[in-house]
Design goal:
transmembrane helix, four-stranded antiparallel β-sheet, FtsX, 11 helices
């Protein structure tokens, strides 16, 4: 028991080892990438959720005039009918000039001159209890208004599918980085054991158990990985802060709407790094000592 305490006071492994500087760097980079992928996944999911909410809250209605009725009159009449449907927050006919402005980036001025513009009605739905497309269609049919309703369900499905793919990719990246970190720690543990094979042999002859020796390597690499994980998490957080504060690219901020609360996801980085390193070091050490 006294020998065990003496061994614990004078650690088997030195406090500092210049050979492990590169290992610190590699683990820090791995957890920087893992933390950054987590932040991007959160922001992408938030963006997809926001787009889905906006699409669910909007419906576009194309009105076709009948008889001698003009397109603008038919659209105004359809907007008035739709505004009275329960679950509709607002309905308004889109002015021809605004319709031209929406189409212009795609077709240009030359084509617009000869192009018949559609008569559109923009409908905003109540987010709490949105009206169904069938209810809108029935209301228009009762007033004998010929119209086609587009609830953007195709776009919504594409966005939700993309969000799911982003989540799966982020999970895959995290698992890949975690396995890479475990492999790096495992290699370093093997190298450390081989470099100190004579010390390990003497300790075994003195009665030190495999569990005790494994505990030394486990604590050493867990502490090292915790520091590296902290540095990687801080670096990822700084990148997010710079992007959010500078706002250098509005398109980037639109695609990745970071939130300050996202920084909370970085808190477990040191603990997670330590757990991966400790578990890997313990398994590798016990396995190697068992074979010797």
């Amino acid at each position: 028991m006294t020998a065990g305490k003496r061994l614990r006071r004078r650690d088997l492994l030195p406090e500092q080892d210049t050979r492990e500087v590169s290992l610190h760097y590699v683990i820090a980079v791995l957890f920087f990438l893992a933390a950054l992928s987590a932040l991007i996944a959160l922001a992408s999911n938030r963006a997809a959720s926001g787009w889905s909410r906006e699409i669910r809250a909007e419906v576009t209605v194309q009105v076709r005039p009948t008889g001698l009725e003009s397109g603008s009159v038919a659209a105004a009449r359809a907007a008035e009918v739709l505004a009275g449907v329960p679950g509709v927050k607002e309905a308004a006919a889109i002015e021809p000039e605004r319709a031209k402005a929406l189409i212009k980036p795609w077709l240009g001025d030359a084509v617009l001159e000869d192009l018949p513009l559609p008569n559109l009605v923009e409908v905003r739905l109540d987010e709490a209890k949105p009206a169904k497309a069938t209810a809108l269609s029935e209301a228009l049919s009762e007033k004998e208004i010929d119209a086609t309703i587009d609830d953007h369900s195709t776009w919504l499905q594409d966005i939700e599918t993309s969000a799911l793919i982003i989540r799966l990719i982020s999970l895959g990246i995290f698992l890949l980085i975690a396995s890479a970190a475990a492999a790096v720690v495992g290699f370093a543990t093997r190298a450390g054991l081989m470099a100190r094979a004579n010390i390990v042999e003497v300790l075994s002859l003195c009665g030190a158990t495999d569990t005790f020796i494994a505990g030394r390597f486990q604590f050493r690499f867990a502490r090292m990985a915790a520091i590296s994980g902290l540095l990687g998490g801080v670096a990822a957080g700084l990148v997010m802060v710079v992007i959010k504060l500078t706002g250098s690219s509005q398109s980037l901020l639109l695609a990745l709407p970071f939130s300050w609360l996202d920084l909370l996801v970085l808190l477990p980085c040191p603990l997670l790094a330590a757990l991966i390193a400790a578990g890997t070091a313990r398994i590798v050490t016990l396995k190697m000592l068992g074979k010797s």
